[in-house]
Amino acid sequence: MSTPTAKSPRPHRRPKKDPARMLAFTALRAVDERDAYANLILPSLLRKAEKNEGFERRDAAFATELVYGTLRMRGSYDAIIGACIDRPLSKVDANVLDVLSLGAHQLLGTRIPAHAAVSATVELARVVLGDGRAKFVNAVMRKISTQDLDTWLQQVAPPYEEDAEDHLAVMHSHPRWVVAALWDSLGVWQPEHCGRTAMSELLAADNARPAVTLVARPGRSTAQELRDSLPAEDTAPGRWSPYAVQLVEGGEPGLVEAVRENRAGVQDEGSQLVASALAAAPLEGRDGLWLDACAGPGGKAALLAALASQRAAVLVASESQPHRAALVAKALDGNPGPYAVITADGLHPAWRPGAFDRVLVDVPCSGLGALRRRPESRWRRRPEDVAHFGPLQRGLLTSAIEATRPGGVVGYATCSPHLAETRTVVQDVLRGRDDLEWIDARPLLPGVPGLGEGPDVQLWPHLHGTDAMYLALLRRKG
Domain count of the chain? Predict the structure, then answer.
């Protein structure tokens, strides 16, 4: 009779590193630990990874989707993860939570089969967390995989009838205070269309991947040239701006010769409309000297410079931060007409009062109008940030007015629809002054619907497909 032998333990297998998932995890940690912006850190990580043998274009696309998708839906995923664990999220290690968020996105926001998403996430956990915590990740991932996203959201979101703002915040992955602020603004600008459906559409638009839009700089390139540079199926005409060309998925700006030569660039259509409206605003008298008072990083300045050159006008582009002024100079490089880029603080002008015929002041703001492009911003901003920007915005607008000659035009713009950063700022600055006339900006955005009752305008991602840009135009009385 033979003696039974003990079963040999399974040999330890070293976890495999998936390059795309590792890169996505590294990017999320940089966003969390160093307050990095995904649109800045991700390109540098991708450039470094592309030098490695075996890292392919599809890996770069997958890593990009993981990072942006996870950041956009982090609020919803946190609620779902919280329902699958026996402790508060605040007690979960940040590294573990990032791995779980990446895994949740693969399960709930992509077409990756559930077994593959669970397996790959556990493998990532083994690499970056160790085998012990990988078991916890495995258990949570298996719970998440039992239901799809819609079912989970209906389960974890409070009923709409009990708390409408909190319901929408969980369903559409926005902080509650942001939902409230956007709803207040939408109620002012679209009072007949600001109910539950419209708010859901607005928040969903914030979570949609924005189209890449090119701008043809007048006198240097045309929209048709940009479209002819790529296969017809890779482009579509802009919706509102005559200078715009949209790239459908797969279109590469770097393949367009005019972009490589700086005769065109990448710019949201809302920004193009702001610059072109200021250039088209009627004024009294001469029209030879323009100012972009907050020019960094240079997109609007480049379009304004091109438009100014066609009228023999000169643009002065001012930026207070030297590194951003360098970006402005790069954006304007090659402009056929004269221009100047200076490093100067708009609150302490380097120019004499009344020097300019047209002035654009695109003020620093909370950025709530560009959440599609910077999804991490929604989790960093706080209500007090809006109040913090207020004095700066009022000061910059006042300075821009003083820089404008009688008969000239000032454009106040901001990439935020928050009322405290838009109309309220303009009303506060105008209060007690009788030397300014509020110009109706709507006719200067021809063909664009849903601009409200004027005279200022607010663009919306769900209505116009643009960032939520605001514009007010003021003429200084002569």
Answer: 4
CA distances from 299 to 12, 239, 271, 303, 448 (A): 54, 19, 8, 7, 21
pLDDT in tens, 233-274: 899 999 999 999 999 876 789 889 999 999 999 999 999 999
Annotated binding site for S-adenosyl-L-methionine: 294-300, 319, 345, 362
- Cβ burial of 232 (10 Å; 0-12, 13-18, 19+) is exposed
CB atoms under 10 Å from CB of 168, counted, come to 23
Which residues are designated catalytic? 415
Is residue 321 located within the same domain as residue 468? yes
Rounded CA separation 404/164 (Å): 45
> Are 241 and 258 part of one and the same domain?
yes
Q: List residues forming the annotated binding site.
A: 294-300, 319, 345, 362
Rounded (5°) CA angle 226-228-234: 80
Predicted local distance difference test score (pLDDT) of residue 52: 83
Give per-residue pLDDT as tens, 84-126. Answer: 999 999 999 999 999 999 999 999 999 999 999 999 999 999 9
Domain residues for 191?
A: 163-206
Find tokens 């919306």 and name the residue. Answer: 460
* Residues 334 and 391 both lie in one domain: yes
